[in-house]
Fold:
Amino acid sequence: MSHPCLSCGACCAYFRIAFHWSETDPALGGTVPAELTEKLDPHRVVMRGTQSKTPRCVALVGEIGKAAHCGIHPIKPSVCREVEPSWEFGRHSPQCDKGRIAHGLRPLTPEDWAGVDGAGQA
Ligand code: SF4
Ligand code: SF4
Structure:
């Protein structure tokens, strides 16, 4: 069974994805492509597309709720890595549930992880 995030993508089209600008500076160890971001304030940038009233991160590929994935997964911002899918690690995730409900998807349950390859690995 495939990872539930791969048929979702809802949180990437719900929250403003803001993080410190240094994550876009290779000289400081940053990995996020600067051209995919825009300035929020003197300290922070946001992923393009996520400041909108109908947010959708520019790096999200595919159709929400059907087949979606992060186009920069290995180098995505720290805030994205911190979002836990509900019940992957045995606990509820308010961010995951909020994103899914906003897109008309039901919150994940522990049963959604039965048989998922790699579930529970950080
Ligand atoms: S809303 Fe939850 S299930 Fe959907 S992509 Fe985000 S973390 Fe994964
Ligand atoms: S960078 Fe990737 S994980 Fe983060 S919001 Fe955009 S598509 Fe989602």
Remarks:
- Residues 41 and 80 are 19 Å apart (CA to CA).
- The beta strands are 18-20, 37-39, 44-47, 60-63, 67-70.
- The radius of gyration is 15 Å.
